[in-house]
Amino acid sequence: MRRSVLTTALATVLATALPAPAHAASAPTAPAPPPDAWLAAQPARPSVSREQFYLLMPDRFANADPSNDRGGLSGDRYSTGYDPTDKNFYQGGDLKGIARRLDYIKGLGTTAIWLTPVFRNKTVLERGGKKTASYHGYAVTDFTSVDPHFGSERDLTDLISKAHAKGMKVYFDVITNHTADTVDYAEKKYGYRSKGAYPYLDASGRPFDDAEAMSKVDRDSFPYTPENTGEMVPEWLNDPTMYHNRGDSTFAGESALYGDFYGLDDLWTERPEVVQGMEKIYEKWVDDFDVDGFRVDTAKNVNMEFWTQWATALDAYAAKKGREDFFLFAEAFSADPAITAPYLTEGRLDGTLDFPLQSAIRNYASRGGPAGDLATVFAQDYRYTTDKTNAYSQVTFLGSHDMGRIGFFLKSDHPGA
Question: For 51-80, how does the pLDDT look when each residue is reduced to its tens digit (9 = 90+)?
């Protein structure tokens, strides 16, 4: 096969202190390519390309410890997040439940488990007047601890140890683009405000372009006046000047990078303090847990320069800890290899979820599209080649928790069939 045999199975029930603000450092660059002779001596197919992933959302898999169903909280579902009668709230799945079902998971042919985020989340979110729980794990308030709805740090250590003993790797889903919604605006308005109409202002009130250089800022530097509730860990994330503060993303143009992702607070990843802070956060998880790699959420919503520095730092740190094969793969939601490949060649990540191949397979198998669509994807494999990775490291899949299962696509493409 031209690339990895990696597949992703959806397993849901549906299923520290940082330096003071500084001027931006020069944009990091990818290292110079090694000699041709060295490249020629490397195996064409990275070892990770033979892994078969099983995607697990802890809340929706197995409940082995009912005592953590409410995350140590008391009250109704809007306080605890728990309501097993409503799929929009926690159902009770936990890390102990996964550990007890490892033989089942391995029996499916699984060699690697991908866990959706296990970090402590804001228990209940409210958007558009509707309240839902953060059972999915993508609204983080504490990047340093396990969410008590899922168990404890000891439970996570135990799960990883038992998975490794059975020959399975464990990957964490991580987030650098945003945090939970803990920043509000004094204006109580949330529509996106562009850089052209509302440029950033330095502490003296002068406009500046953050893509060119970073200046000292204060609360008056932004299109909206930010107010933080102080809920975040580490503490530096309670500084509202570490966020873009431009309102909700429209998922088009500039706002895809600078806007809040469905209301979740968008980090100012162009700032060196944010890059360094996110490096320290995830280096600590590498320190504390024998994790085999990270799946990176919402990569397209973060500037490429961030990835170049962050991925290079994490690779080096993991290697220093003896994990030479630490694997970083990203969600770059696009069916165009010209868009997904730069996250490897420029961003220095090891792979991306193979949205181009997923789209071509669905088009051919379910929509009557031409087989040539597949050939077009394969013909662009060269785009992914770097000194450390290639197209074999693309994570192939047919469906996911973000978009739905392949069965859902087959049904929606053929209503009434």
Answer: 999 999 999 999 999 999 999 999 999 999
Residue 199 amino acid letter:
P
From the list 88, 101, 221, the residue with the least C-alpha distance to 159 is 101
Q: How far apart are CA 322 and CA 304, in angstroms?
A: 27
Catalytic residues: 297, 331
What per-residue string of b and e applies to 232-242 under the rule 16 or more CB within 10 Å gives b? bbbebbbbbbb
Confidence (pTM)? 0.90
pLDDT tens digits for range 137-162: 999 999 999 999 999 999 999 999 99
Residue ranges of domains in the chain, CATH in brackets: 8-177+269-413 (3.20.20.80), 181-268 (no CATH)
C-beta atoms surrounding 368 within 10 Å: 8
CA distance 242 to 19: 13
